[in-house]
Design brief:
6 helices, globular, Rossmann fold
Length: 232
Amino acid sequence: MAETTTIDAKDGSGSFNAYVALPKSGSGPAIVAIQEIFGVNAGMRQICDDLADKGYVAICPDLFWRQEPGVDITDKSQAEWDKAFELYQGFDVDKGIEDIAATIDYIRAHAACSGKVGSVGYCLGGLLAYLTAARTDADASVSFYGVGIDGKLDEAAALKRPILLHIAEEDGFVDKDAQARIHAGLDNNANVSIFDYAGVDHAFARPDGVNWDTGAANLANARTATFFEEHL
């Protein structure tokens, strides 16, 4: 069962919508699914629905609401890419983390949530999942091909709960030097696990995405499922 809910921003500036998918059991641990630069689109809703099928309460907040509420686009046209990058460039990361924190508080208090809350993010959401692990009380976080993590390694010391990173070795938005910096900054942190995927590009696990890679996506999703089973 899926529904749309409304969450109040922590700074009192307004409220934003979130897509919620509930498990058939009616309750379970919660996972905040953090959007890419394409908004809360069909792919993100599918991710939430898949998590609900696995027994989780899944929620995907609209993080672009401060610029434009209800963004729902794909990676299939240049016009959509142009719009996505415009939104990305205007996005306030710190406010985005505040909104994720508000989402965590909301879903942890939800009648269907059994208590623990994790996060999983993709692309921009991969960076936000990393920062969620550093700045919020999320119990466990997963980052898929996060863009810009190498610029936030000064926050690594704040990673006190488990986080799993999936890195695409041929990522067009995270070059080999950035990948090396991520490994150098995080490999010795006992709370961090990193998997690298050879021969695949950014967004290899995006449902219906142009860079979808079945083998890598299935492996990363299986590792993510095991990670959440262990920590949530």
